[in-house]
Amino acid sequence: MSTKLISRAIKLSFVFLSVTTASLISTAVKAEQAEIFGDITIERPLKEPLTVRGMSGGTIPVKQITDRTDTPTGACTGYIDKEPDHTLRLKNRFDYMKLVIESPEDTTLVVQGPGGTWCNDEFEDKNPGIVGEWLDGKYNVWIGSYKQEQYLPYTLIITEISQ
Q1: What is the largest distance, in Å, between two alpha-carbon atoms of the chain?
Q2: pTM, whole model, 2 decimals?
Q3: Is residue 18 within 8 Å of 36, Cβ to Cβ?
Q4: Residue 73 sits in a domain of what CATH number?
Q5: Taking 50 as the threshold, does the pLDDT of residue 148 lie above it?
């Protein structure tokens, strides 16, 4: 079995365990409404925030994928898998869109797509995020952890709401 498949299986096991635990602890969490490690295709207008769940982390330093230590949106830190956690396809241009990660632990974010590479590790407290204008096209999204092979549950939230 390939390293990618083993890594994805480990992450999916953690996601399943995290989602199951969260569902038992809080009825407010509706895990069945969120995709897990899904490819996402959206177009304007995005009527409500879109959520996708997953597990952060990997074995590859972010700098190895991004070939840089920082971008205008923040530092390129942490560890990720070689393959992106999500592929985001935008059918049209967004004048404003926000991607933010919610996680119980500190995580990092890398986005590569039309126009370049963006990294962030502290957008809202310990949660990374990227906000701004987004061109139409395909974006690869990685959610990293600060320690190698540390896998943490997260929710990726995509919204046009500016708050």
Answers
A1: 44
A2: 0.77
A3: no
A4: 2.60.120.380
A5: yes
